[in-house]
Design a protein that fits this description.
Blueprint (H helix, E strand, L loop, with lengths): L3 H6 L4 E15 L4 E6 L7 E5 L12 E10 L7 E12 L15 H4 L10 H23 L3 E2 L5 E2 L11 E2 L27 E3 L4 H11 L1 E9 L12 E10 L4 H20 L2 H17 L8 H13 L4 E3 H13 L17 H10 L7 E4 L17 E3 L2 E3 L4 E6 L3 E9 L3 H11 L7 H5 L8 E7 H9 L20
Parallel strand pairs: 3-5, 6-10, 12-13
Antiparallel strand pairs: 1-2, 1-4, 2-3, 4-5, 7-9, 8-9, 10-11, 11-18, 13-16, 14-15, 16-17, 17-18
Bound molecules: 4-amino-1,4-dioxobutan-2-aminium adenosine-5'-monophosphate and magnesium ion (MG).
Length: 484
């Protein structure tokens, strides 16, 4: 028994070969039938040659075991093929009603059948990419001495303070409106006595764990009740987060992000999965005749090379605003929202920065955002910014921007001084919202530390060149959609 990927790389002839897989396509002729068999181990299929009567019960989608000999092929499209002596149908297929048809089907339609979608070879490839990237990350963090940890899904606070938490109702609360917002009064009987939420970030718990083993990371489910209906937002996604102690230099945190992505991209560049992603990109372009899909295989490879090269530009928020304003003033860019220091970066601004700073060859770090735009837990930058004659307090933080997807990761130094943290919490109105334990961390051996969070599904989008995060997650959930 051999998987399709291994069989295709085997160029010596062999008898008694068993191939398990699914029929990808079928061509019946008078004296012979050609069946393409795939098993998800590669984009490619094995060509199997059958007697027409043996192929009578087969259709695209059926699960089979084919036994035969692996022989040099007379055809020009493949070097070898399986001359089949025995066919076993392991899972019959209702060809007429199968929602997956062997023809082009739009991404929108395929999102309505997420339970079947992964069987499309290009989607199976995304599952393998995801798995490979996790392996690369695990290897990287192990090498760097980070401990992989698990943080809770059910929490008592809203880490980001953005009011985008999903509230967990007790059985008694049947109506969604009976669930409270953070800080609200319980009016229904709650399983945990007071309202609890699905986590919006592992960060606060990760900070607690970092103080035990110095460097920690986690890759965990994250939930946001954001109504953003965009190709970048999901209601349930995976966030990769890391936290490191004994640093008061934001560059140390950015270096972890950079080295981590350099490692992931380098692994990808030298892998079979990488080669297949480029092939899939070429096929996707050919299928759409480049109309809807403008990213070529060469562009995708350049993207990985840009990541793998590291040393990405780092600019401050104030500088970013100046660049945007200059571009708008000399008409080299047109924005729906005028860039201004106070209003913050819109997605269109982030997109422009990622495409123009450092010639758009890789990501760009934007640092030192105005503190008012950021959550309570960030340390102030060492120097404040002056803009238009006004002084602004800035946070020791960064966002990592990439073309098209905009924000891929964000991080900061954390306020580790108890008094300063209390003041920041008061200023942001989050004091007394179940974060006493977090403040407690500042009383007992609190050390300067920092960390970051990276949208893992966005990373998979960026690496695969797939334009919508809903198409790289097997069972995507977004506002109004959670069917299966
Ligand atoms: O920028 P965010 O909100 O940062 C935090 O939550 C920090 N507490 C993380 C930390 O420092 N440990 O989220 C981090 C990243 C974003 O940069 C983005 O890539 C991704 O998570 N993200 C989403 N991905 C998909 N769908 C959404 N709705 C997302 N919201 C954030
Ligand atoms: Mg952010």
């Amino acid at each position: 028994r051999v998987d399709v990927a291994r069989l295709l790389s085997q160029l010596t002839e062999a008898d008694g070969v068993d191939v398990y897989g699914w029929v990808r396509s079928l061509r019946r002729q008078k004296k012979v039938a050609f069946v393409a068999i795939g098993d998800g181990s590669t984009l490619e299929s094995v060509q199997a040659v059958l007697k027409p009567e043996d192929a009578a019960q087969l259709s695209t989608g059926a699960a089979v075991r084919l036994t035969g000999s692996w022989q040099a092929s007379k055809g020009s499209k493949q070097s070898h093929e399986l001359q089949v002596t025995q066919v076993a149908i392991l899972g019959a297929n209702d060809a007429e009603h199968n929602p997956l048809q062997p023809k082009y089907q739009t991404p929108e339609y395929l999102r309505t059948i997420p339970h079947l979608r992964p069987r499309i070879p290009a989607n199976a490839l995304l599952l393998r990419l995801r798995s490979q990237v996790i392996a690369s990350l695990t290897h990287f963090f192990n090498q760097q001495g980070f401990v992989q940890t698990h943080t809770p899904i059910i929490t008592s606070s809203d880490c980001e303070g953005a009011g985008e938490v999903f509230t967990i109702c007790s059985n008694a609360a049947k109506e969604p409106e009976q669930c409270e917002k953070p800080g609200g009064q319980a009016q229904v009987e709650h399983f945990f006595r007071t309202p609890k939420y699905l986590t919006v970030s592992a960060q606060l718990h990760l900070e607690a764990l970092a103080q035990a083993v110095e460097k920690v990371w986690t890759l965990s489910p994250t939930f946001r009740a954001e109504r953003s209906d965009t190709p970048r937002h999901l209601s349930e996604f995976y966030m990769l987060e890391a936290e490191l102690c004994f640093t008061n230099d934001l560059s140390d945190v950015m270096a972890v992000v950079e080295n981590m992505l350099v490692a992931v991209a380098s692994d990808l560049l030298s892998s079979h999965t990488g080669a297949e992603l480029l092939k899939a990109r070429e096929a996707s372009q050919a299928e759409h005749e480049s109309t809807t899909d403008s990213l070529t295989a060469a562009d995708l490879k350049a993207r990985w090379t840009g990541l793998a090269s590291g040393a990405w530009p780092r600019i401050t928020y104030a500088h970013a605003i100046t660049l945007l304003q200059t571009a708008a003033a000399d008409s080299s860019a047109t924005f729906a929202f005028e860039p201004s220091y106070e209003t913050g970066l819109q997605a269109e601004h982030e997109r422009w920065l990622a495409a123009h700073v450092g010639e758009g060859k890789g990501p760009v770090f934007v640092t030192d955002y105005p503190a008012v735009q950021k959550p309570f837990y960030m340390s102030p930058s060492s120097a404040s910014e002056s803009n238009g004659g006004k002084e602004y307090n800035t946070a020791a933080c960064f966002d990592l921007l990439v073309p098209e997807l905009c924000e891929l990761a964000g991080g900061s130094l954390r306020e580790h001084r108890g008094d300063e943290l209390r003041k920041a919490m008061e200023a942001k109105g989050v004091e007394g919202s179940g974060l006493e334990w977090y403040q407690d961390l500042r009383k007992y051996g609190s050390v300067p530390h920092g960390g970051f969070g990276l949208g893992f599904d966005r990373l998979i989008c960026y690496l695969s060149g797939v334009g919508n995060v809903r198409d790289v997650v097997a069972f995507p959930r977004w506002v109004g959609r959670c069917e299966c």
